[in-house]
User: What shape does this take?
Amino acid sequence: MTGVRPVRKGVSPEPDGAGSDDAIDRELIARWLAGDQRAATTLVERHATALSRFAAAMGGMTGSDVDELVQDTFVRAFNSLESFRGESSLRTWLFTIERRLMLDRRRAERRRPEKMPVAEGDAASEYTALDGIVADEMQERVRVAVDQLTALQREVFTLRVTEGLSYKEIADIVGSTEGAARVHYHHAMRAVKEYLGVPHA
Amino acid sequence: MRECQDETVKDVLPELAAGRLNPADAARVTAHVEACPSCAAELAVVRAAHAAFAASTAPAVDIARIVAALPTPPSKVIELAPRLRKRRLTSWRIAATIATIAVSGVSIVALQGILRDNKPPAVKRVVLKPSDAAEASGLSVGGSMNDLSDKEMQTLLDKLDELDAVPSAEPQPAVSGMRAAAGVQ
Assistant: This one.
């Protein structure tokens, strides 16, 4: 086999979570705790897009809903940043907080009957509909396929393919085990492939 | 579709798409994918999903507004620490000054006692201590503290400041002392 291609780098605009990124986050947290307000800006800049992306992928939220959710996630995180032990990466921890807020909101929404659920097969989310983003057909079909997954499968699948998180990290975020996260991912992948008509071997 | 011969490859396709594999693994996985239609199909799905939710399609968030909503860093706690430390040092200085004055007073009383009784009392040891300390610091404290001029008093206080404010009873590094006592290298 000769055709070794270089790895496609920079798929994600911000650096992906290598060990050094964790070190940078820890350094920024230490600086913020010591009173450096600018460190907060850098931390928000580093992680806001990933949090926004994850929230949008979960569907059923407008752009301003996502903006508000991301802000609440950071406010919660910074309020307890002193207690952040660095056992997981900061991004994993932020996803955990964001997910909990999303679940709380979903529960609150369910108690409000006037809000209609997003219809099945609707294009991805209110956000995409509102902003009229026309993506390439395959991507759009993937979005619809992901929308039809169960909530847990959708979370696991999105965190895995969009953020490239490990099963261990995903398990920490969704409060499950590594093995269960793996199974959810495989079921989700099978369902997405079936929807797209890709044979599953 | 032909069965995949290396199931470990599918497991790392998301990492490949996210650029999180080291160059050696990325090359190995890419080589496998090019020869395996099953993995190539899955990688296409992974890449499409990655692109579908990539940054360009994520709602924009207002960084400045988020930062403005954040709590202020708990810097006050950090600022207080050196001040507390300073205050503790100052109190040690005051204690040291009082102790010196007290010992000097005792020495004067003791000297008076010696002069009156003309016999060397046990308090002689007390007399030696402040003078030793004074010599060590380049000071000569004799007689009453009241006899010192303002300048001498200031010098004395300055010298006291220079002395290590930590009492000599401060625990020494226990391990090395114990090792030395036990004759351990």
